[in-house]
Amino acid sequence: EGAAEAEEGSADSSASATSAFFAALASAVEVRAEQFNAQGLANLAWAFASVGGAPAPVFEALHVAILPKLREFTGQGLANVAWAFATAGHARALFGPLSSELLSRLDALRAKELAITAWAYATAGVVDAPLFDAIARLATRRLGDFSCQGLANLAW
Asked: What is d(CA 138, CA 65) in angstroms, rounded to the nearest whole number?
């Protein structure tokens, strides 16, 4: 029993330390978001979404920092940003400019990136007919490139 209590206490302490870290990171990101490069911004958005989100000001700071750097993102970075903002419920303002960037280089995106992007837009409830049509046309030509999960995400 003592070992189980110690393990539970250790887990509580670890969760508390993780929460404290993400709270401190959120504060730092709010102040310094514009100093991060595209990869760093994508990683931060993904991390915050993966742990259940962050306060709205953090995603607003990420949004402001991402916009002027959209051309610097890789295809995976764009897909990850779309996924993160959709997952965290902060997609609406970012998805217009993101759509333009995606459309400008859609042919270069890998199947997984297309599937994640389609899922993110659908999850966020953002209807972008030109983007969806372009993804559908491209995906139709490249169906063999998609995993089963990717195909399911496209159908979402």
From this structure: 30
